[in-house]
Write a structure and sequence with these properties.
By secondary structure, the chain is an alpha/beta fold. The protein has 2 domains: 142 residues, Immunoglobulins (Immunoglobulin-like, Sandwich), CATH 2.60.40; 377 residues, Alpha-Beta Barrel (TIM Barrel). It is 25% helix and 23% strand. Strand 16 and strand 17 form a beta hairpin. It is globular.
């Protein structure tokens, strides 16, 4: 077979299959390519309290990495294309930082590095990109300590904080909440805004991340402080003494607004392609729209989430729409439609889904078919182009066989991440594709970019008879084997009591291959074609 192929090769752009199918590379469209779906398919990987990763503190480096690989492989196998990885649970770091201490969720002791040493964030970025997936870094901008912070048996939450932690280095920036060990940065303080910006920008500069992500925690939820108001009387008094005229609520919101606006500008100045995304509480304000009722983040978390989207201080928005479709006071489609209506700068809208509720018989809002239904609703609504699951554990555990259902149904075909044309709308140069030989039922292809730095993933199209297939490959792929025929038949024969099986490759042969390059913000190049003529 190989000798036949080698005789048929006439330069690197030509190959033969079985000696009869010459192929010619061309930049000219031979025919219309199938449309690849554009959909952000992601999951949050929560590290606080070891919710998703690592499964418990103190695992060996090898076990931590094996768990990360299992998460990423599962996501890749079901055609997901992004992970939102929590790197700052509460003024600590799931990576090597000179600003904040190592998180206790890694080793069980705050400030203690993994041993043998490795950098978890560096590992997650590398392994995500090796699978053609984006890695977004999820930060809690103000939470300074959580009741689940790990430490030696018998120690108090305060005793578990190392000397380099902000609660101890700058106690004037921090407020103690309630009786459970919670601490919170004061969002109105300029020093706090500067700290959060410095932490985020340190990651943007040092790591090849694809996105920065904030969740719904701005001022704390009431239960963090035993139902009491945020204890910022001193900050409020100082503001008034300086001549400030805002109401207390507007004063608090103003501090958060300043961080959102300035941080977005800082990220764009440093690395324009790094997306900034937010996942606020799913209701902007009760009564907007009129049928909506529920928790008031505007007056309680002091988050003017509507403003941030209106002003375009984000690249994507992921409102946490954690309610059922038919739950009228918090209806999923009604809220999604409202957020879309507030998207004055045409940013990407990728709602958050409460996937961990899936199949929970004790939860009145749980429904074994709700998540697939919400994905379909999202797909049918103009202005929304993806979703994020909370959290990865539900998919990793295949809860109620949801992972299997996604793999064979809604996620059966791969999807590209929707573009962000306000960041960059210039497509990569058309790549080149060459054949390097064929053997058995496979043909080997070489993929090459004009500028390797301008490619994040490849899209490889193949046509066999009347059927087309699509693969999305990571940019590091320079060689790839493609099946000539996709169908096989197996025949069984019995001779003198002995059973023999013979498998033959059948189906239509490969007739067309096309390749495009996609950059960091979703721009796709013109295709290059490899046409194959059957004898």
């Amino acid at each position: 077979m190989l000798s036949t192929v080698s005789k048929c090769l006439a330069g690197v752009a030509v190959f033969c299959i079985g000696g009869i199918l010459p192929a010619v590379a061309s930049a000219q469209p031979a025919e219309k390519l199938p449309v690849v779906q554009r959909e952000f398919r992601a999951a949050w990987v929560a590290t606080v309290a070891n919710i998703d990763w690592p499964s418990k503190p103190g695992l060996s480096t090898a076990d931590q990495q094996a768990e990360a690989i299992k998460i990423l492989d599962t996501a890749r196998e079901i055609n997901m294309n992004a992970i939102v990885f929590q790197v700052r649970p509460h003024c600590d770091a799931m990576y090597k930082s000179d600003i904040e201490p190592w998180s206790s969720y890694i080793t069980g002791i705050q400030g203690q590095a993994p041993d043998p040493y490795y950098d978890p964030l560096e590992f997650w970025v590398k392994e995500s990109h090796a699978r053609g997936m984006e890695l977004h870094c999820w930060f809690n901008p103000y939470r300074a300590n959580h009741s689940s912070n790990r430490g030696p048996e018998g120690t108090t939450p305060e005793e578990r904080l190392v000397d380099s932690h902000v609660v101890k280095t700058h106690p004037d920036w921090v407020k103690k909440l309630g009786t459970k060990g919670y601490y919170w940065l004061d969002p109105a303080k300029k020093e706090v805004q500067d700290l959060t910006t410095a932490v985020v920008m340190d990651v943007v500069r040092r790591y090849d991340v694809d996105g920065i992500h904030f969740d719904d925690y701005f001022y704390p939820y009431p239960d963090y402080n035993d139902g009491k108001d945020f204890p910022d009387d001193d900050t409020w008094a100082a503001y008034q003494a300086s001549g400030g005229k805002l109401s207390r609520g507007d004063f608090r919101r103003d501090g958060v607004n300043k961080l959102m606006e300035s941080l977005y500008a800082a990220i764009k100045k440093e690395k324009k392609h790094v997306k900034f995304g937010l996942s606020p509480f799913g209701i902007g304000k009760p009564g907007e729209p009129a049928s909506i009722a529920g928790f008031n983040q505007y007056e309680t978390l002091y988050a003017d989430a509507q403003l941030w989207l209106n002003e375009g201080w984000v690249d994507y928005y992921t409102p946490q729409l954690y309610w059922k479709i038919e739950k009228i006071p918090q209806s999923y489609p009604i809220l999604l439609g409202w957020w879309i209506s507030q998207n004055h700068h045409n940013r990407n809208i990728w709602p958050g889904l409460y996937t961990s509720r899936y199949g929970n018989a004790r939860d009145e809002q749980a429904d074994a078919e709700e998540i697939p239904r919400q994905i379909l609703v999202t797909r049918g609504m103009a202005g929304a182009s993806g979703h994020v699951h909370f959290s990865m554990k539900a998919l990793l555990n295949n809860r109620e066989t949801l992972t299997d259902k996604l793999k064979t149904g809604l996620y059966a075909a791969p999807a590209l991440i929707p573009p962000s044309p306000w960041l960059d709308d210039k497509a990569p140069a058309t790549p080149s594709i060459k054949s390097t030989g064929a053997e058995g039922n496979s043909v080997s292809l070489a993929l090459e970019a004009k500028d390797a730095g301008d490619v994040f993933v490849w899209v490889l199209y193949a046509k066999r008879g009347g059927k087309s297939t699509t693969e999305i490959l990571p940019a590091a792929t320079t060689a790839h084997d493609l099946s000539i025929r996709l169908e096989t038949t197996t025949t069984t024969a019995t001779n003198q009591g002995l059973e023999t099986k013979e498998t033959k490759t059948t189906g239509e042969p490969l007739s067309l291959v096309a390749l495009t390059a996609v950059d960091r913000v979703g721009n796709e190049s013109e295709p290059v074609y490899l046409e194959i003529g059957a004898k």
